[in-house]
Amino acid sequence: MTEPLVIFDLDDTLIDYAQAADRALASFAHQRGLGESGVQFLRDVNAGTLTVHEAWQLIGEHFLLPESADELARSVAATLPDHAVAFEGAVEGLNSLREAGWRTALLSNGSPSVQLTKVR
Length: 120
Description:
6 helices
């Protein structure tokens, strides 16, 4: 008999992606000295209906930042894994499944290097 297998998505299943994104935006704002109103502006713009490029174009223009929209977006995206936190009980739940004889796997459409950083 084979071991049972359970497959999980990583973002918003095991990892709180929304919280990681919010922390990355707050970190960006604090590093740039944009203050709490800057953090809120970043949150508001990123919560809207703009594309990623449009959002960062608006942010760059608003704060007179020298980088291009794409450079700004990449700089924040690169820090997302550093801000990733597992949902409460996720790690314990995975460990319990493994102890009960289940094999576990991750399936994700995210970049392998970014997802591996989150897993670590």
